[in-house]
Amino acid sequence: MVENPFVQSMQRKLELLRGIAKRMKPGAPLLLASLNSEPLPEAFAVQMQAWKSHMLSNGITLDEWERFAASIGRESDPVSAQELTALLHEAGFTNTSRFFGSYLIEGYIAFKKRLT
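-> structure tokens emitted (116 positions)
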């Protein structure tokens, strides 16, 4: 059985980010890809429908899609962009900026806070 690669809970996400920050030099960049979801059900539904259309048109079967869609929120633990930015800040990062987005996947760059 494959272990779940997603970090569950806000506390565990924060612990992971703090651990990464401890090992970084001040001012060093962190590139992070994250499965994010806004709390509004309508926005989530639109994103999922678009993702479904894309995946089905690229050879994913309906059964595979349904297993994937059911895993979101159960095997993964999406957070909003605002929550992710807050976690990064609390963990010791600053100047967070989104540089990529595709459906629910977003890429961010943040920098380890400099010592003052």
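The mean pLDDT is 90.
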